[in-house]
From TrEMBL:
Residues 117-181 form the Mechanosensitive ion channel MscS domain. Keywords: Cell membrane, Membrane, Transmembrane, Transmembrane helix. It is found in: Cell membrane. The chain crosses the membrane at residues 30-52, 73-91, 97-119. Residues 188-274 form the Mechanosensitive ion channel MscS C-terminal domain. Belongs to the MscS (TC 1.A.23) family. It is a multi-pass membrane protein. The keyword Cell membrane applies. This is Small conductance mechanosensitive channel. Residues 76-116 form the Mechanosensitive ion channel transmembrane helices 2/3 domain.
């Protein structure tokens, strides 16, 4: 085909009013579909939020952890479904989607080989939620990542560390999970005293202190317990006395810090030294000079 004929055909196409009318009509339909999908998405999310607010006043409700997980999961699934339907509706303006869906079974096997990880992610995510292994708001450790669960989706799980980093993990990579938020925690404090101090005196002071602190800390489930001498320090420098307290989940960091502060102040009042590095210097006398 000569360049002149090509230019003439292009001119006829772009000067055709019916062609521009069809393009404008499809464009308006596509924009309308996108706007309707966005509006429908917010309506569905508002309905889900409303349902969970009503459940807060219901006497038969799930645990808060479980409800937060299901709330975010339903929002996630709703977004996927709405966008998928909108995409099919837009494609239907350009091609026959029915025939594509009918032929999906033929190419499904080929696509399946390329989407094995995606299928594993979805199946693993389903079992994480079904078995209630962990929920949104739980503090967990997964392989080398540790933090608070921000979201559990069908494909990924988001974990936020205490320093602010957000880790996004494929669900299929989650093989071992340590959940710190289900059962009570133990606040463990090791108190070091100098090797020269009286062990019984120090232990009695620590016992008197921990017997009085529980009313000040509602997170404590039981009174702290003095377990006794835990370790004799290397180089005869310290004696370690261990104190343990059962507390509510994920409050052991706070309670341990407060106990250390209180015990340090009380031991200082009693004149019991906390060990610190010391250096002793010996000077050898010089032999007398011969005359």
């Amino acid at each position: 085909m000569e360049p002149t004929q090509t230019a003439e055909q292009a001119f006829q196409l772009f000067s055709n009013k019916e062609w521009w009318t069809a393009i404008a009509g499809k464009g308006i339909k596509i924009v309308s579909i996108i706007l309707l999908a966005i509006i429908f998405k917010y309506v569905i999310k508002a309905a889900i939020t409303r349902i969970f607010k009503v459940r807060l006043r219901s006497p038969l409700r799930l645990s808060e952890r479980r409800e937060n997980t299901l709330y975010k999961l339903l929002n996630n699934v709703a977004s996927y479904v709405i966008y998928f339907v909108a995409l099919l509706t837009i494609l239907d303006e350009f091609m026959n989607v029915t025939s594509i869906l009918a032929g999906a079974g033929v190419v499904g096997l080929a696509i399946g080989f390329g989407a094995q990880n995606l299928v594993k992610d979805i199946i693993t995510g389903f079992f994480i939620i079904f078995e209630n292994q962990f929920s949104v708001g739980d503090y967990v450790r997964i392989t080398s990542f540790e933090g608070t669960v921000e979201e559990i989706g069908l494909r990924t799980t988001k974990i936020k560390s205490w320093t602010g980093e957000l880790h996004i993990l494929p669900n299929s990579s989650i093989t071992e999970v340590t959940n710190f938020s289900i059962h009570n925690s133990m606040a463990v404090v090791d108190v070091s005293i100098a090797y020269e101090e009286d062990i019984d005196k120090a232990q009695n002071i620590i016992q008197d202190v921990v017997a009085k602190v529980k009313p000040n800390f509602p997170e404590m489930v039981k009174d702290p317990e003095v377990l006794g001498v835990q370790m004799l320090g290397a180089g005869a420098s310290e004696i370690v006395i261990r104190v343990a307290a059962e507390v509510l989940p994920m409050t052991h960091f706070k309670i341990a810090r407060e106990l250390r502060k209180i015990l340090k102040l009380e031991l200082d009042k009693a004149g019991i030294d906390i060990p610190y590095p010391k250096m002793v210097t010996y000077q050898k006398d010089k032999p007398p000079k011969e005359k």
